[in-house]
Amino acid sequence: MLTGIIGGSGLARLEGLTITHREVIRSEYGEPSGALTFGQMSGTDIVFLNRHGPGHIIPPHRVNYRANVHGMKQVGVERIIAINAVGAIDDGLNPVDLVIPDQIIDYTYAREHTFFGSEDGPVKHVDFTCPYTPELRRKIIDTAAQNNISLTPTGTYAATQGPRFETAAEINRMERDGATIVGMTGMPEAILARELELDYAMIAVVSNAAAGRSGEEISVDEIMSKLQLGMDKSRALLELAIPQL
Ligand code: HPA
């Protein structure tokens, strides 16, 4: 089973990946964010895609999620692990922490969010009760436990539209809704993977306290510095987890 990794902010390149080749592909939904990078991680074949494209130029609401997920499927990927930077809504979470979310609340809008929306295809309703594949999450969580990598094994990911950060009131509302982390790129990626019957899980890397939670403005410089450490941790976890999948 071929594993695809979609890296977000802070993970434009995947160190630890022995690259064999890159492939620019087209899908019927357009072009993915960049070339797919093929190679081995811990001796296991993987395909890597940088979600925001070379130079981090594609904002969250303009990522072609359909082309990215369909492109992965086209080259034979059967499961995707997404790496996403997130803000912490839950007070117990701090920058550099990892979370393996089990739920999503989708606040995004006006994104191409389904493969089943065309007029010529049959209407399809897909079960999304558990938006992240439980067995895939379990393997990642078990690998972390066996290797003393600390993480939070559940969480509810609030997907926001961006590219702006949220207001303090929006974050308070998301907390009342039950969300523990917030990010801009978790949807529609997860549902598109489900529609194509790909297993999908997320390693969320906390880069900052969400709006209104730290008494300070959210600074991208601060996020980037924390993100680097968090991404190193997520990469260490990936290197250990990938051969176990
Ligand atoms: N909000 C939304 N997306 C994010 C954040 C945040 O605070 N941090 C990293 N991605």
Essential attributes:
Rossmann fold, ten-stranded mixed β-sheet, alpha/beta, binds hypoxanthine, 245 residues
In short:
This protein is α/β, with parallel strands linked by helices and 245 residues long. It has helices at 65-74, 134-146, 168-177, 189-195, 220-241, and strands at 2-7, 17-23, 36-41, 44-50, 77-88, 98-99, 103-106, 156-159, 181-183, 199-209.
Explain this structure.
It is a single chain. Strands 1, 2, 3, 4, 5, 6, 7, 8, 9 and 10 form a ten-stranded mixed sheet that branches. The mean pLDDT is 95. The protein has helices at residues 65-74, 134-146, 168-177, 189-195, 220-241; strands spanning 2-7, 17-23, 36-41, 44-50, 77-88, 98-99, 103-106, 156-159, 181-183, 199-209. With 245 residues, the chain is α/β, with parallel strands linked by helices. The chain has a single domain (2-244), classed as Nucleoside phosphorylase domain (Rossmann fold). It binds hypoxanthine.
Bound molecules: hypoxanthine
Name the structural class: alpha/beta
Largest sheet: 10 strands, mixed
Helix content: 25-40%
Low-confidence stretches: none
What's the structural blueprint in terms of helices and strands?
Layout: E1 2-7, E2 17-23, E3 36-41, E4 44-50, H1 65-74, E5 77-88, E6 98-99, E7 103-106, H2 134-146, E8 156-159, H3 168-177, E9 181-183, H4 189-195, E10 199-209, H5 220-241
Parallel strand pairs: 1-4, 1-5, 5-10, 7-8, 8-9
Antiparallel strand pairs: 2-3, 3-4, 5-9, 6-10
The structure holds hypoxanthine.
Hypoxanthine is lined by residues 85-87, 160, 165-166, 182-184, 207-208, 210, 218, 223.
